[in-house]
Amino acid sequence: MQHDTDEREAGSVVVGDPPVPRGWPVLGRTAAGPAEAVAAAVVRVRPALVIVDLAGSRAVGLAAVAAVVARVPAVPVLAVAAPGAEHELVLDAVRAGATGVATTDDPVELLPVARAALAGRPAFSPGLAAVVLESMVTPARPVPELSPRESEVLRLVVEGLTARQIAARLVLSPRTVENHVQRLLRKLDVPGRGALVRYAIEHGLA
Predict the structure, then answer these.
(1) 23-65 per-position pLDDT tens digit
(2) Where is the HTH luxR-type domain (predicted)?
(3) Distance of CA 19 to the CA centre of its chain
(4) Of 66, 104, 122, 128, whose CB neighbour count within 10 A is largest?
């Protein structure tokens, strides 16, 4: 019964439309939209756990995870993907800062994973922890050197600006900004904006 009491007192913010265990306390819900808006919603509520849906747009979900972790690093984030999600998506979520990842659409299966994440422990669906641990033994790659313009674009991506907003700030075309972002993804060897934000924060690039 202690778990139930802790969960009622804690409360979560749910991003998108992931499964949520029956009776799980939800303090607020927000659409899986612009990462900065999601992070701002979490900051306002200050929940004990954030549950982010990755079953919709991969890029949007990962960016939301990274933005929440950057703004409120003390709050654990549980990313929820569809059953059978590829391992690369799981690893991307961890790289973006997720405390745990569940690959399920069953609220009952999600419950023990959510409880572990709420407690701040690594929390994964069966079999995923081994995938994550195996990826962690890969030798760290040196951080590539960025040009001044690439550094500017990266800093603004981390701040949550869209390509159009970055273009206006730097007096560039949106297409040029997107080209810079694509070069950053290739140069830093990350799969998307969410992972790019996490990489920049972890390595002091922004």
Answers:
(1) 899 999 988 778 888 888 898 988 999 999 998 778 888 889 9
(2) 139-204
(3) 17
(4) 66
pLDDT tens-place string over residues 75-93: 899 999 988 888 888 888 8
C-alpha 23/C-alpha 55 separation (Å) is: 22
Q: Which two tokens stand for residue 128?
A: 């995923």
- In the chain the domains, ranked by start, together with CATH numbers, are 2-136 (3.40.50.2300), 148-202 (1.10.10.10)
**Cβ proximity of 72 and 202 under 8 Å:** no
